[in-house]
Write a structure and sequence with these properties.
Elements: H1 2-11, E1 19-22, E2 27-31, E3 34-41, E4 47-52, H2 54-67, E5 73-75, E6 79-84, H3 86-91, H4 93-108
Helix pairs in contact: 2-4
Length: 109
């Protein structure tokens, strides 16, 4: 839950209408009824964060994560998954803000 609240705070400049959406197995960062990010609790205060950027924006997304040496996996060539925590989100605010912009672009264009 801390990771979701921190992500909401960090991405607020680009996702002004975002709100937390509590579902049984995860927490979504929701904009206009769509979960832009979703987080599932993991052990050790970590969360599995997933977000959809589509094939078109994947090539812009993965280099950002590579630059910060944040490990990730890509599912179905469109959805990125990372394991993160509150401290990582806070320490990489610019990265998560850029990810928020890319996710918003994927959903709106």
């Amino acid at each position: 839950m801390e990771v979701a609240k921190t992500l909401l705070e960090v991405t607020k400049p680009v996702l002004a209408d975002a709100e937390l959406n509590y579902v049984n197995n995860y927490i979504g960062l929701q904009v206009a009824g769509n979960n832009y990010f979703w987080l599932k609790k993991r052990s050790g205060n970590k969360s599995l964060m997933s977000f959809w950027v589509g094939n078109r924006l994947l090539s812009k997304t993965t280099p950002l994560l590579d630059e910060k040496r944040i490990p990730y996996t890509v599912r179905k060539g469109e959805t990125v998954r990372i394991t993160t925590d509150k401290d990582t989100v806070q320490a990489n605010r610019d990265l998560f803000l850029q990810l928020g912009k890319l996710v918003q672009q994927a959903w709106t264009s």
